[in-house]
UniProtKB/TrEMBL annotation:
InterPro entries: Helicase_C-like, P-loop_NTPase, SNF2/RAD54-like_C, SNF2_RAD54_helicase_TF. Gene3D superfamilies: P-loop containing nucleotide triphosphate hydrolases. Keywords: ATP-binding, Hydrolase, Nucleotide-binding. The keyword Nucleus does not apply. It comes from Panagrolaimus superbus. One of its GO terms (molecular function) is ATP-dependent activity, acting on DNA. Residues 40-200 form the Helicase C-terminal domain. This is Helicase C-terminal domain-containing protein. One of its GO terms (biological process) is DNA repair.
Amino acid sequence: MLLKTFGNISLSAEAIIAKENKEIDKIFEPNYASGKLKVLLEKVDYVIESGDKCVIVSQWTSMLDIVEHHLKKKKLKLTEINGKIATKDRQERIDSFNQKNGGAQVMLLSLTAGGVGLNLIGGNHLFLLDLHWNPALEQQAFDRIYRVGQTKDVFIHKLICKNTVEQRVLEMQENKIQLAASVLEGAANKTNKLSVNDLKYLFGLAAER
């Protein structure tokens, strides 16, 4: 009787593990939409229905690929600029996005490519999918839609998950902005590197600030 009980416990544990693995596998399926992605898609729908255009920014081209997959199902007109797109091919994509009537409705933009002086005033909404510890890099991306020639109100949307490392990154950004504002201009370069203490804080290995 005891052996039978142990056997049942073992089978039950295996069933639980199999179920958990199945749930994890769903995350990697092409049609899976995370909570953050669902919110993004809802907001993009609102922007397009309002007659506006938007820029979607991520540090990761793989994330932009996922977003692209879901937006294509909505039959939206998309264009993209990332590090793989040759400089000579970018202007055509920019011109398409900046058309007042027609052209691309959504620009998918990698964060690093977004800091190279692009003018994307065709859009007035920008969605940042993942935070970067250096707020200056994000600001460069925001400035792509907030430039001379912009005729609409500009909206910046940062999508942040509660109780994740993203909240710590946001707090770190705020600390670095305060530091840059309080020191001499020449010393502001201190914000360009992550210190060991910064890394400990991000991963919960240091005391709360």
